[in-house]
Amino acid sequence: MVFHSRLAPTPSGYLHLGNAFSFLLTWLLVRRSRGKLLLRIDDLDAERKRPEYVADIFESLSWLGITYDEGPLNPDDFEQHWSQRLRVNKYNETLHALHKTGKVFACSCTRSQLANLSPGSRYPDICLPKNLPFDQPDTAERFHIPESPDVTFTDSALGKISVPLGRRTGSFVIRRRDGIPAYHVASLTDDRDFGINFIVRGSDLIPSTAAQIVLADALGWTDFRNNVFIHHPLLTDSDGNKLSKSEGALALKTMRNEGAKPKDIYRKFAISVGLPETGAETMEELLESFGDFDPAEKFKMPNLK
Ligand SMILES: [Zn+2]
C-alpha cells in the first residue's frame, strides 16, 4: 500500500524529542511505501501559538532531514496559504453536517462547572435534556456519546482496539464556547480533504482517534475508518514519565544549541522502537537500517481502562 500521511505538529511549544520520534517513524513508513507526506500545522485552537514555535517547526524538520511533499515551505507561506484559520469555512461545513445527524447538543457549562466534575469520568450530559439553543453566546456544542458500547477500530500495529469513550470522555466538544471548531472536527476534515490514508500517532491519542471515528461514522465518511492507523508507544524519561513540551531540556532546539547532531536523535529513535543500533547520519541511511521493520512485532497495547 502506498501511504499518504501527514506530520501534524501544534505550534504551542518547541518541538521535543517525542515529536521527533513520531515524525521519524511516519517519514520512514511513508518513504518505504514510496508514498506522500503532508506537513499540516495544527494552529486552529493553539492558544499558545507563537511565531517562534511556528519557525521552530521548520527549523527542526530541516535539521532532522525530514522532507515532505505537500504543505508550507516557511512560516510566511504557512500563515498566508496553509493556516487552519484559513479553513474555518470547511470545518463549519463539517459541523453543519454533524448537526443533521441529530446527535449534537448545546452546552452552556462554564469552565468552573466542568472543573468540578470528577476527573477521568464522562461529561454527565448535564445540558442534553435542556435542549438549549445553539446560537447563544458562550455556548459550546457537544456530540452525544452514550455510555456504551465502546468504540472499536483496528490499529495495524496493535490489532483491534476497544476504547471506553462513553465511560471515560462522554459527549465531547465539537465547537468551542468561543465558536472555534474543535480539534477533532478540524483534524478529521483536513484528513479527508487532503486524501490521507495513513495516520501515525502517539498512543496517548487513541481516544482522539476513537472520537474521530465516531464522527466519521456519523457523517458517513467511511474512508476514515479504513485508514491505516498506527499508535506508537510514547517516549518516556528515565523515570518512565511521559515527555512533554514543558520539559525544555528535551526541546530539539535546546539539544541543537547544545551541540547534538541529527545522528544522535536517529540513534535514540532506533533504540526506542527496537531497531538494531545504527550509525546512520542521514535519513536515507536511517531508512536503510529501518529495512522491513514491523511495528506489530515491537509495539505493545497501552492500558486504556
Ligand atoms: Zn453543559
Short structural summary:
By secondary structure, the chain is α/β, with parallel strands linked by helices.
Mean pLDDT figure? 93
Main sheet?
Answer: 3 strands, antiparallel
Spell out which ligands are present: zinc ion
Global geometry: globular
C-alpha-based Rg, rounded: 20 Å
Q: H/E series, N to C?
A: EHEHHHEHEEEHEHEHHEHHHH
Q: What share of the residues lie within helices?
A: 25-40%
The unreliable regions are none
Q: State the helix count.
A: 13
Number of strands: 9
State the end-to-end distance: 33 Å
Q: Give the oligomer, counting copies of the same chain as homo and different chains as hetero.
A: single chain
Across the major sheet, the strand order is 3-4-7
Instruction: Kindly estimate the percentage of residues that lie in beta strands according to DSSP.
Output: 5-15%
Structural class: alpha/beta
